[in-house]
Amino acid sequence: MWLYLMGLIGLYYLLRWYRERQVVSNLRDKYIFITGCDSGFGNLLARQLDLRGLRVLAGCLTEQGAEQLRNQTSNRLETVILDVTQTENISTVTQWVKERVGDRGLWGLVNNAGIALPLAPNEWMTKQDFMKILDVNLLGVIEVTLSLLPLVRKAKGRVVNVASIMGRLSLLGGGYCISKYGVEAFSDSLRRELFPFGVKVAVIEPGFFKTGITDKEKHVQNLRKIWDQTSPEVKKAYNKKFLDSYIKYTGTMDKMCESNLSLVTDCMEHALTACYPRTRYSAGWDAKLVYLPMSYLPTALVDTMVYLNSPSPVKAQ
Ligand SMILES: NC(=O)c1ccc[n+]([C@@H]2O[C@H](COP(=O)([O-])OP(=O)(O)OC[C@H]3O[C@@H](n4cnc5c(N)ncnc54)[C@H](OP(=O)(O)O)[C@@H]3O)[C@@H](O)[C@H]2O)c1
Ligand SMILES: *[C@@H]1O[C@H](CO)[C@@H](O)[C@H](O)[C@H]1NC(C)=O
Ligand SMILES: *[C@@H]1O[C@H](CO)[C@@H](O)[C@H](O)[C@H]1NC(C)=O
Ligand SMILES: *[C@@H]1O[C@H](CO)[C@@H](O)[C@H](O)[C@H]1NC(C)=O
Predict the structure, then answer these.
(1) Exposed, middle or buried, 26 (CB in 10 Å: 0-12/13-18/19+)?
(2) Cβ contact 167:177 at 8 Å
(3) How far is CA 269 from the centre of its chain?
(4) Per its UniProt record, what Gene3D superfamilies does this chain match (predicted)?
(5) How far apart are alpha carbons 283 and 265 in whole angstroms?
(6) How far apart are the C-alpha atoms of 74 and 56, rounded to whole Å?
(7) Ligand nearest to the CA of 287
(8) Pocket of ligand 1 from Cβ distances under 6 Å
(9) Residue 175: nearest ligand to its CA?
């Protein structure tokens, strides 16, 4: 009985492995547009796909980032300056992409650009703090997607959205987790709507990785700045000791970060080049072994685990 079961499970993994190895043809003619290529995952993915021979159109926030990327890649890769919060910028870039891809359409759109700050307990922040993150991480993803979708549909291509394991488990206050839950929701409805058109939608859910957005110094500076702006009422309720232990806690997050970004970009590459991409990719051992399993646990249990492991204003007093 157990032998049969193990045989069946083995067979399932073997078939899945075989199915997931099938690669789409004519990769050298395929165009991929990526947002946020100045640094981190987007930058590495642009270089990786360029090496593999795909035609990369890289959206960068700054001219300096764009120049640096062009210096490190073949002359088939082209860059464009794109701030995903600017509607006009998005329509100009869409026209720019259209001129390049022509009748072939756009094979892949990777919504990667994102920010993590301001980040602090909810009560310390204002509506504007939430809006700042949602504007880039959620509304940016939505507007870029809506604008480029006709070109993706033409190619029967792929949309790859970078969410986070924080889009499955809300461990942080502020706009970040909300934005990533939003990306998950948007991707799910989009995938179902686009299935009839032959367009596939994949979500990438990385754990903690060493990039610009997990820079410890920036996080600590941000916490101090937000604390200074909170009301006397909030300062009294939380008190300075809590701020100090919260800053220390943020410092330990830095050590948890994985530095091999390929774990993430390999998932993105698979989503773009495999005949049968997955719907969700969790990248990093922390995501696979801790956060994703945790997201399936009963809420009361998760609440207790988080309470025991993070600084608390009451304990700090
Ligand atoms: N690192 C992690 O642990 C982790 C985990 C889960 C998910 N993610 C997600 O992965 C994605 C990539 O982040 P990363 O970790 O690679 O960090 P990163 O190195 O900071 O890359 C993000 C890129 O987006 C750019 N960007 C910021 N605002 C933009 C805007 N308004 N328009 C266009 N581009 C903009 C940034 O440009 P500047 O550098 O010039 O600001 C940067 O190049 C993000 O969506 C992030 O939420 C990261
Ligand atoms: C790119 O390369 C050029 C010429 O080699 C160099 O002058 C320039 O400083 C480089 N730019 C960046 C941002 O690395
Ligand atoms: C997007 O806006 C920036 C600054 O506002 C500008 O430098 C850039 O050329 C714009 N990109 C396009 C493709 O129009
Ligand atoms: C990073 O991860 C990739 C993909 O799993 C692996 O092939 C590579 O050897 C790793 N690199 C390092 C330096 O560990």
Answers:
(1) exposed
(2) yes
(3) 14
(4) NAD(P)-binding Rossmann-like Domain (3.40.50.720)
(5) 9
(6) 10
(7) 1
(8) 35-36, 38-42, 61-62, 65, 82-85, 112-115, 136, 162, 164, 206, 208-209, 211-214
(9) 1
Question: pLDDT tens-digit profile of 60-85?
Answer: 999 999 999 999 999 999 999 999 99
Contacts of 27 (CB under 8 A, 6+ apart): 52, 53, 54, 273
Query: What CATH number matches the domain at 26-210+258-309, 3.30.420.10, 3.20.20.100, 3.30.70.260, 3.40.50.720?
Result: 3.40.50.720
Is 171 close to ligand 3, i.e. is its CB under 6 Å away?
no
> How many Cα atoms occupy the beta-carbon half-sphere of 64 within 13 Å?
1
What is the set of active-site residues?
Answer: 176
Q: Of 71, 57, 67, 74, whose CA–CA distance to 112 is shortest?
A: 57
Residue-wise DSSP of 289-305: IIIHHHHTS-HHHHHHH
Share of the chain above pLDDT 90, in %: 92
Residues linked to residue 282 through DSSP beta bridges, in sequence order: 205
Q: Full-prediction pTM beyond 0.90?
A: yes
| Dihedral sign from CA coordinates of 210, 243, 304, 137 | negative
* Separation between Cα atoms, residue 27 and residue 118, nearest integer Å: 39
The Cα 182–Cα 163 span in angstroms is: 9
| Strand arrangement, sheet containing 55-60 | 78-81, 55-60, 31-34, 108-111, 158-162, 200-206, 280-283
Q: Which pair of structure tokens corresponds to residue 52?
A: 């593999």
At 73 the three-state DSSP class reads coil
What's the pLDDT tens digit per position in 22-44?
999 999 999 999 999 999 999 99
Neighbours of 45 (CB within 10 A): 29
Chain centroid to CA 228 = 30
Q: Look at the block and give the residue holding tokens 């764009």.
A: 66
